Amino acid sequence: MNWIPRNRTTDIEYPAIDDATKAQWEADPMLKGKYTYKKTDEPARIVSKKAQAPKKPVGVPDPPTETPETYEQ
Hints:
Elements: E1 2-7, E2 17-18, H1 19-27, E3 35-40, H2 49-52
Antiparallel strand pairs: 1-2, 1-3
């Protein structure tokens, strides 16, 4: 069975998760009680590690990259 988690504080719904993920979230002391769950027939979506990685803040420039071509000769 799959579940749609909804954040109790913000009322934001997230993509469907499976029973195993729901059990992990409920066992985690930081997440326990933070979400309500609604049964769904939607397939669970697995979020890749790349999608979970924090994004660069807006307005922060990329660090300079030095390559041999950038050095003055």
